[in-house]
Amino acid sequence: MLIGAEATLIRSALTRIAEQIVEERNDGYPQPFDIPVFDELGASHRLQLLELVATYLLTPTSEPLKLTSLNEATVGAVFAQVKLSVDMELLFEEPAGARSEWRAQVLSAYTYCFESESCEWDAADFVPTSVDSTDTDQWDNAIEDLANRILWDRDYLMAETFLDQPPEIAAAMKSLLGIEDDYFVDAGTDDSKSSSMDEVVARFQSIGL
Predict the structure, then answer these.
(1) What are the backbone dihedrals phi and psi of residue 117, each rounded to the nearest 5 degrees, phi first?
(2) Any idea which of 17-31, 56-70, 171-185 has the lowest mean pLDDT?
(3) Over 60: is that where the pLDDT of 112 sits?
């Protein structure tokens, strides 16, 4: 379970994605995250996955979140939203320092997670030390470091590659890369059996988001 500034950042990103999904009902334009296995799902399906990830990351649970491409892709989308929000602040900031909500959350989370770690290199050369920083690479590095605390790898980005292969080839590839047999086939939730979007949103909000 995440706590402190790290949990605050993840909660903000989860909430923003959920808001965008609900907005799709009005404008019909989903926000893509360049994560096909997540982007191609229906709105209710994505909301249910966000609810699942929020439950496991932000509330006490008796076991960890199951390792599947959909679950990890949802976590990947959360950090993609963080990056998108920071990029938007940097792009439209005028005057300097006027909009820094997301950068402040990233910096607080990074400090919370890593300030006690000793490094042989100067972290200031690689990550921002102030919300006023306009170095996109430094912000990307900080967000990537935070993502790596939860995501061991990015196997979910290879979903289409595996699903397009004959079963025996896909099995051999997964064995070589140490990927579980059911990693890409667990469908998680099902749009055809889901509740209404309003019900999903209500459940999502009920876990404190």
Answers:
(1) -85, 135
(2) 171-185
(3) yes
Q: What's the per-residue H, E or C state across 156-189?
A: HHHHHHHHCCCHHHHHHHHHHHCCCCCCCCCCCC
Which long-range CB contacts under 8 A does 15-19 form with residues at least 24 apart?
15/209, 16/81, 16/85, 17/46, 17/50, 17/77, 17/78, 17/81, 18/47, 18/50, 18/201, 18/204, 18/209
Task: Dump pLDDT digits (tens) for 133-185.
Answer: 999 999 999 999 999 999 988 888 876 666 666 666 666 766 666 666 667 76
Query: Can you say whether residue 178 is alpha, beta or left, with left for phi > 0 and alpha for psi between -120 and 50 degrees?
Result: left
Q: Are 83 and 102 in contact (CB under 8 A)?
A: no
pLDDT score of 192: 45
> At a CB cut-off of 8 Å and minimum separation 6, what does 14 contact?
50, 53, 54, 78, 209
- Residue appearing with tokens 């995250």: 33
By the 8 A CB rule, do 52 and 78 touch? no
